[in-house]
Structures are given as structure tokens and as C-alpha cells.
Design brief:
By secondary structure, the protein is mainly alpha-helical. The protein has one domain (about 10-70): BFD-like [2Fe-2S]-binding domain (Arc Repressor Mutant, subunit A, Orthogonal Bundle), CATH 1.10.10. Helices cover about 50% and strands about 5% of the residues. It has a two-stranded antiparallel ribbon with strand order 1-2. It binds FE2/S2 (inorganic) cluster.
């Protein structure tokens, strides 16, 4: 299980997984809640963080989509 950095907020309290760790997992290919759980362990306890994990997934996808678009003139 990844170690937690005290400088980033936790997204999964059960397994002490930070938001940064989840973002890294998404950017390295975890494209579903199941994949995030498999890669980080987050979301497999009380399940309270699952909506936050899904929000994080949507946010990272949106950031990637915006970064891939050419700049407006
Ligand atoms: S807070 Fe993530 S499984 Fe409980």
C-alpha cells in the first residue's frame, strides 16, 4: 500500500490514501472506481470515500481533456 504524505489531504480515511495518490493512479491508467481501488486500495473499506474518488476521476479526466485541446486564439 502506498505511504501517505502528510502534506496532501487524505481522500480515503480507512486506508490513509491521499488525494494526490489517487490522482497519480488515475493519470497512470486507473480509469474506473474499480481500477482506482485495485491500484491504491482506496474505497474498499467503509465505502464513504467512493463519491470523492469518482469526483477525483471526473476532475482529472476534465483536466486531461482541457490540456489536450489547442489554446484559443
Ligand atoms: S474512507 Fe475510503 S473506504 Fe472508508
Amino acid at each position: 500500500m502506498p505511504s501517505h504524505s502528510p502534506l496532501t489531504p487524505l481522500i480515503c480515511l480507512c486506508f490513509k490514501i491521499s488525494e494526490a495518490e489517487v490522482q497519480t493512479a488515475i493519470r497512470s491508467g486507473a480509469r474506473s472506481l474499480k481500477a482506482i481501488k485495485k491500484k491504491t486500495g482506496a474505497g474498499d473499506g467503509c465505502t464513504a470515500c467512493r463519491p470523492l474518488l469518482e469526483e477525483c476521476l471526473i476532475r482529472v479526466r476534465q483536466e486531461e481533456k482541457e490540456a489536450a485541446q489547442p489554446p484559443l486564439r
